[in-house]
Amino acid sequence: MDKKNKVAEKFDWTLSFILLLFFLTSCAAIYSAQTTEQYIENYFLRQIAYYVIGAIIIAIVMFFDSYQYRKLSWYLYGFGILLLVVLYLLPPSDFTPIRNGAKSWFVIPGLGSIQPSEFMKIFLILTLSKLIADHHEKNPLKTSKTDFILFIKLGLATLPPLALIAEQDLGTALVIIAIFVGMILISGMTWKILLPVFSAGAALVAAVFYIVIHYPELLEKHIDTYQYNRIYSWLDPESYQSGAGYHLYKSLQAIGSGLITGKGFGERVVYIPESHTDFIFSVIGEEYGFAGASLVIGLFFILIYHLTKTALDTNDPFNTYICVGVISMIAFHVFQNIGMTIQVLPITGIPLPFISSGGSSLMANMFAMGLIFSIRYHHKSYMFGSAK
To answer: What sections of the protein cross the membrane (predicted)?
Structure first.
C-alpha cells in the first residue's frame, strides 16, 4: 500500500463530513441573519474564511501525535496564561478594547480580533489530560489519598485561567468549570471525594441564586448591575423586554413563530440584533422550525457520539482524557447556548460551536477537532494493550 493510500485510510473522513455539515449550516444561517439593514460587513464571507483557516489549523495540529502534545502541554498552558495576564494588565486601548463590557480581545491590525480565553480552553484540556495520565502512571494503586492529591493538582491547574477569564467573561469561565468537572469525572476519583465537592458546589450555586433574587443588596459590591439584570430578565423576560431581556424576548418570539417547519430560508420577521453570533439558533428556529432545530441538535449528538467512540477506541489514556475534555467543552457550549435562547438558562454570551460567527471561537474549536483528527490518524492497535 503506497503512502497516499495509507494517509487516506488513517484520515478521519467521518469527522470531516460532520464538519462539512456544520460549515453548510453555519454559512446558510449567517447569510440569512445578515440580510437585515443592521449589517454592513459581510459575515458570511468572513465565516468561510474562518473555516478555511480552521482547516489549515486542523492540518497542522493533526501532524503532531499525542506524545508530542503531552510534552508541549505545559508550554501551551504557560503561553495561554501569559496572554491572559497581559490582557488583564494592559489598559483599555485600540489594541485591547472593551466590548460589551468586557476586555477579552487583542486587536491585531490586518488580522482582526483574537480572544485568548478561547484557546486557553484547549490548552487547559491538554494540561489536565497530562496531569491525570501522569498521576495514574506514578500511582498505579489508587487510594483516597492519591485521589485527593490528584484533585488538588487539577484544581491548582484550573484556578489561574478560571480567575483570569472570570474577570473578562463569566460565560467562558463557566466553560472552564465544565471542562474541569468533565475531567475529574473521568479521572477515576472515588465518589468519597467527588460527592461532597459536587454537593457543596450545587449548594453554593443555589445559595447565590437565592440571595440574588431575594437579598440582592448583599452582593451589590461583588456582582455588577447588568449581571443582576440578566438573571431577572431570564426569570421574567417580558417585564424586561425593553432592556436586559430584549434579546431573550425576541428569541422566544422568533423560535416560537417558526412552529414545526419554519417560515423558510430568508423569510424571518422577528428582528434580533447581532443574531449572527450568540443567537444564531433563533435564526434557525424561526426559518426552519422545530424540524430544522432538531436536525441541528441531532448533528451535535452525532459529533459527540463520534468523539465518544474515538475516546473508547484509543489505546492511550492521555488521548481518552483529551476526548472527554473536548466533549465536555462542546456539550456545555451547546446546552448553554441553546438553553439561553429558549429561556431554560440565563444569557451568558456563549456562542454555538461551529455555527455562530466568530473567528477565535471557531479556530479554537477547529484546534480541538485537530486533536481528534490527530488521535485517529496516529492511532495504533496493540495486541496486548497500549504501548508504554
So the answer is: 48-67, 74-93, 105-128, 148-164, 170-186, 193-213, 288-306, 318-338, 350-373
